[in-house]
Design brief:
Length: 304
């Protein structure tokens, strides 16, 4: 069933969009990521303009993340205080990112920027996560007690310390604010929740227990992506509500399924699966950037 998207100005199969939303929802529930790192490139691949894909996908992430948070809230695996500190940086980063996006859209460089950002960030994060996950799996197979991970790093020497009881931490508020700030910029420019950076940062930089990382990440993602959507809609006019609704419907259902799947898998298995997906998307985007298109010249319509 074909449906016309007024802002994107293209016709797309409605069931395809529902399916894509469902896939991203499953990822959200399993890994604590918004799923935009996968959905936004997929929207590029089916012909959605990059500016519309980025702005609209941020809207879809709100619903899939909210659905995932509800499941984690019932299990009391959300650190709301840490989520609030992350949110302070996230809102500031999103505001800056939207302004940068607007400036690049006006000079016609948004598509190149978004693609390059995806290739660089997904390539680096995916490789690091894959290596770390392999090492964790090897360690789990060795006999004897696992090595204790040091909890005291340079982060613990910074000022403005706060106590986060749900995470059993007493650390400076500066690193969480900075992590949130970076994720906010990525949400505005790349149409992602930023979970693929936030989750590793919360585990390895902040030292948070894995059991509260996913729920806390999703909690912060809800508000940052909602704010990003509002900014894009009012300043760039690139949010396609017809596209957003179809992605929302699939995402809400998928998040509940993903949460149930995530409970049954080990943390190391979850991380290596996420790393492989990140690297696969990165490879496809890099291929599209470097390979010469089949048609070097195209004729625009509408007098352009």
């Amino acid at each position: 069933m074909q449906i016309y998207l007024p802002i994107a100005e293209v016709s797309v199969n409605a069931f395809l969009l529902l399916g894509l939303g469902g896939i991203v929802g499953v990822l959200s529930g399993m890994f604590g990521v918004g799923g935009g790192f996968l959905m936004t490139p997929l929207l590029f691949f089916i012909g959605i303009p990059p500016a519309v894909a980025v702005a609209t996908e941020a809207n879809q992430i709100v619903a899939s993340s909210f659905s995932g948070v509800l499941a984690h809230f019932k299990r009391r695996t959300v650190d709301f205080k840490m989520g609030g500190v992350l949110l302070i940086g996230g809102l500031a980063g999103a505001a800056l990112g939207v302004q940068l996006f607007k400036a690049l859209k006006e000079i016609g460089q948004v598509e190149l920027l978004v693609s390059l950002c995806y290739v660089v960030f997904l390539g680096v994060i995916g490789t690091l996560m894959f290596i770390e996950s392999l090492n964790a799996i090897r360690r789990s197979k060795r006999p004897g007690p696992p090595p204790k991970r040091t909890r005291h790093t340079w982060v613990h020497g910074l000022p403005l310390k706060m106590r986060f009881r749900a995470s059993n931490l007493y650390i400076s508020a500066i690193p969480p604010v900075m992590v949130g700030f970076v994720v906010g910029i990525l949400a505005a420019i790349m149409g992602v929740g930023g979970g693929f950076i936030m989750v590793p940062a919360m585990i390895y930089l902040l030292g948070m227990p894995t059991k509260v990382v996913v729920g806390t990440s999703l909690f912060q993602i809800i508000f940052v992506t909602a704010f990003t959507t509002l900014m894009h809609a009012t300043q760039n006019y690139t949010v396609d509500m017809a596209l957003a609704v179809l992605l929302l419907l699939g995402g809400v259902v998928g998040a509940q399924i993903g949460t149930r799947i995530g409970i049954k898998l080990k943390a190391e298995q979850l991380r290596i699966l996420l790393a492989l997906m990140v690297l696969a998307v990165c490879g496809k985007l890099l291929f599209d950037l470097v390979v010469t298109p089949s048609e070097l010249y195209t004729l625009g319509s509408g007098g352009h």
